[in-house]
Amino acid sequence: DAGVIQSPRHEVTEMGQEVTLRCKPISGHDYLFWYRQTMMRGLELLIYFNNNVPIDDSGMPEDRFSAKMPNASFSTLKIQPSEPRDSAVYFCASSFRRGDEQYFGPGTRLTVT
Amino acid sequence: DAKTTQPPSMDCAEGRAANLPCNHSTISGNEYVYWYRQIHSQGPQYIIHGLKNNETNEMASLIITEDRKSSTLILPHATLRDTAVYYCIVRVSYSTLTFGKGTMLLVSP
Fold this sequence. Notes:
By secondary structure, chain A is an all-beta fold.
């Protein structure tokens, strides 16, 4: 298996633009997690899905952030409109069951100018 | 989930054993100890986990004290590629991961 795949790896955008981050989990994994990592706040869980259904989105910072999982092999995290404080590395992870070890993707480094 | 305390940084010579401590004095009976690491510019990577018995896999060994209030992750023969931030996480089996600041391990030649 290729592992968790994220795209793009790097994204630079201007404030106010819409940003879409993409994730393909490991085949057969029922759980998908989105994290954000910054120097100030460390690694934070934003939202997670079970069988394509959002279970807990309490970590999503504000309404500008939204996440979807239209099928078992694809998820998106969208920021609209983006702001400079959204600059961070965004990781996607998946696991077979909620308590199992999570496999992380390589991350998307987002820079909002 | 119980809170953990780790030293912010540690050094280790290449080829020597790296022993990374973690305190979790408020751990409850159904909480596991998990270790992940994050190499620079990569996503976190699962290493090992345990409940109360010592565990070993191809990457590392996990030693949990009898009272379960602390644990040690052991990398038996550290290499330069083991330089990373190591996170000790205590959680019940069904909860999500909460990452702290971890320990920055620097392995030097």
